[in-house]
Task: structure prediction
Amino acid sequence: MTTILNGKLISQQIQDELFIEVNKIKAAGGKVPHLAAILVGDDGASETYIAAKIKACEKAGFKSTLIRLPITVNEKELLIKIEDLNNDEDVDGYIVQLPLPRHIREHKIIETISPKKDVDGFHPQNVGRMALNLPSYIPATPFGILQLLERNNINTTGKHCVVLGRSHIVGAPISILLSRNGVPGNCTVTLCHSRTENLIEHTRKADILIVALGKPEFVTAEMVKEGVIIIDVGITRIASDKTKSGFKLVGDVNYEAVAPKSSFITPVPGGIGPMTIASLLVNTLKASKKEIYG
Result:
């Protein structure tokens, strides 16, 4: 029997929990958590993500600020905005929505964000602390995966986890997190990528398969074993003559084919996406309470 890992439902539960905690903070005369975001340009996907984050802040009782900059903004101007946020005592955490225009060095932007306010968990200091199993802001999508596994009581200890994709946003950090001594964790992890040979030999051995490739419906039924746990991070808009809009959203896994062989599987949409946003809010609350850096 296949169990759907409903990220939308778990995300709402987390937001409800945050709302209760924020009300307690307010009642005690404390500071309301404040999340800010910088959006460069008007990319459609980025606009959607930012709107969802702002809506989630409202549900959780957080304060939010959106800073819009034109796609023509130069790197120096963006760095000035980042320094302003670094020095703004009312802002607890903030994100710079990716991707950025090609004329701006992404690594330079990430390195300039204060690690104390880096609720996306991308700053080298936070990545290093995470790798050493020290308190840190965990990147929101991997953090969301951990919470989804934990809240569904999925035992990961001793399991063979195969990760498809090695990005610094998802693949690399989740491979570290699930291999470390913790719960969820204690997996034997295989990290696969575009240069991996005989990929199907690896995926067929996976007890847990995490897919973050950006290739729609890449994973097929013959690539997985019976009872596998599927975490599908990908989301791509493809043309469809079965919807009014003329398109549909699909993941990196062929859901219809793979779901019958799975013990657990995330839907797309409604799986990891909402968990990413909930995790961003959890990181912001930690920043507000100064739990990581004091």
In short: The chain is about 40% helix and 15% strand.
